[in-house]
Amino acid sequence: MATISNRAAVIAKTHKVLKKHFQPVAPISRPVLEQLLFACCLENAKHDIAEVCFARLQESFFDWNEVRVTTVRELSEMLKGLPDAELAATNLKHTLHSVFETVYEFSLEPLVKQNLGAAVKTLEDLRGTTPFAVSYVVQNSLGGHSIPICRGSLDVMYIAGALTEAEYKKGSVPGLERAIPKNSGTEFGSLVHQMGAALVASPFSSEVRNILLEIDPDSKPRMPKRKSSKKPAEPTVAVEETAEEAAEDPAKTTKGTKKQAVKKTTKKKTTKQAPAAKKAVKQSAKKTAKKITKKKTSTKIAKKASKSSKKSETKKIARRKPR
Fold it and tell me: What pTM did the predictor assign?
C-alpha cells in the first residue's frame, strides 16, 4: 500500500499506463450550469453514454424549469444507459431546485467573475452537487486546478496503491493536484475517469484487471471479489450427547444438540417398540381377514337360500292344477 513518500510515483505510473490504453476526451465548452448538470450524468459513466443522455434531456424538454418539475422516475427513463440513472436524475433535479431557489434563475455565469474559493463554496452549498461535479466545473468552467474523482476513479486509485484504506474510506486522494501539474490535469482527469467508468461497468473484466496489474502487480488482493453464491456450511454438532445429558447442562445445549438428542431418544423407543407393533399389525390383519371371509360366506349362503326358495315356489305353482 502506498505511503506519502511514494504516492507521487504511483500516481505518475498510473498516468503513464492509462495513456497507453485510453485517449483523453476534450471537454465541450458549455455554460456553468449546463457543465454542472452534465457532470451529474458523467459521474461513474462512460463519456459517450453521458453525452447521449444529456442531449436527450435537452431535446425532450422545453427548458430547465420543465426538467426541474419533472419526476425522478421520468428523468430516470430519459437517462437510461447510465450506471445509476435514478441517482443521476435525483442529483440533477435537486441541483436545479437549489439553483432556482438560490439565484431565482437557471444560470450560474456570475461564478466565473467571482473569486475561485467563493465560487467553489457556492457550488458546494447547492443541494444535489457532489465533489466530482464541483471539481469538474472548477476544472472545465472556472479555470481552477481540480481533478474530478468519482467512485470508479477512487477505486482505481485505491487498487493502484495510491491510497491507504483510511484515505479510501474518506473518499479523496490527498496530494493529487500536487502530483499532477495543472497543464496535465484535464488529461489525467479524463484518463482516470475512463478507467473508473470501465471498472464500474465491468469490475471482473480481464482487460480491466490486466491494466490494474500493469500499474501495480501486487494489486490483486485489492481488486473486486465475486460474491460466492454458496451458503455457509452449518456448524457441526457433537452427536454423542443424549437428551438426559442435555437436560443436565441446559446452558451448553443448542438447538442442534436438543434436536439430535430428541431424535436419538425417539429412535430408541421406536426400535424397542417395533416387534410389538409388528405383532399387533399381524393380529389385526388376521382379524379383518376372518371378518371378510365370514361376510363372503354369509352372502353366498343368503344367495343360495334365495335361489332355492324361488325354485321351490315356481315348482309349487307348476304342480297346481288349473281350475
Answer: 0.70
Amino acid at 13: K
Q: 80 phi and psi, to 5 degrees?
A: -60, 135
DSSP 163: S
Grid cell in block for residue 44: 461513474
Tens-digit pLDDT profile for residues 139-151 = 999 999 999 999 9
Instruction: Determine how many CB atoms are found less than 10 A away from the CB of residue 92.
Output: 28
User: What confidence tens digit (pLDDT) does each residue in 162-182 have?
Assistant: 999 999 999 889 989 999 999
Dihedral of the alpha carbons of 201, 207, 208, 213, in degrees to the nearest 10: 170
Show the cell assigned to 168.
479510501
Q: Return left, alpha or beta for 147; rule: phi > 0 is left, psi -120 to 50 is alpha, else beta.
A: beta
